[in-house]
Design a protein that fits this description.
Four Helix Bundle (Hemerythrin (Met), subunit A); mainly alpha
Length: 233
């Protein structure tokens, strides 16, 4: 029987006794499903922030609205603290991209190091934002004393909440990677790469959101009037 089996073989067709391709296809399909879910979530978040920004511009046209930047005495006219925080978040986003690169090459220690740096920097960003809150509060810019104050706290709080959610997911990925063996299969590292790819995209997105909020919150009253006019307010 083995003789006839040998005669019936088709060597011009690719064969793989280990058959890793079905497993890789399943991982790829799962990663695509997660990517679609993330895109849908980010679309919802974009709508939420867009609505906040529109209401902010509309509210800026009321007489009780006092911008936080423009004049030298206003607290965000020299936003060096926010620039510092922005640099920290940029570094966290770069660390996430490095972690993804190392995961694709199966370098466990490098993945753990880069992911750990991203986690640490993101926590530092959140703490630094709370530091700015404290400084504004000490200067008398309370939550309810001015609509511009309220929006500053709202924007930074919602943005920070999304970062905290991302931290929980990234911490879970970090734990999963720490339990992996250096000899794990390609399929196993493909799962890690897929998860880190989603985390990296999420961090880049939140960085972009923060840059928009940063530019908006440090603008002058004249800029708000121009933007509001463009929006039809």
């Amino acid at each position: 029987m083995s003789f006839f089996a040998t005669l019936s073989e088709k060597p011009w067709l690719a064969t793989d006794t280990a058959q890793p391709q079905p497993a890789m296809n399943a991982i790829s399909l799962l990663n695509n499903q997660k990517r679609i879910a993330l895109k849908f979530f980010l679309a919802v978040v974009t709508v939420i922030f867009s609505l906040f920004i529109i209401t902010f511009l509309e509210r800026s046209q009321f007489p009780d609205f006092q911008a936080l930047a423009g004049q030298p005495w206003q607290p965000l006219s020299d936003p060096w603290r926010l620039w510092l925080n922005t640099g920290v978040l940029v570094a966290a986003s770069v660390a996430m991209q490095l972690a993804l690169y190392y995961a694709r090459t199966g370098r466990k220690r490098a993945v753990l190091a880069a992911t750990g740096v991203a986690l640490t920097l993101t926590v530092q960003f959140i703490v630094a934002q709370l530091w700015v809150w404290s400084l504004l509060n000490d200067l008398g810019y309370y939550l309810a004393s001015n609509p511009a104050n309220s929006y500053f706290y709202l924007f930074t709080a919602v943005h920070g909440a999304h970062l905290i959610g991302g931290l929980l997911v990234l911490a879970w990925v970090f734990i999963r990677v720490s339990r992996k063996s250096l000899s794990d299969t390609q399929q196993s590292w493909a799962r890690v790469s897929g998860n880190l790819s989603l985390c990296a995209n999420y961090w880049h997105y939140l960085l972009g959101i923060w840059l928009v909020l940063f530019a908006l919150l440090t603008s002058s009253a004249e800029t708000y009037q121009l933007l509001a006019a463009l929006c039809g307010f």
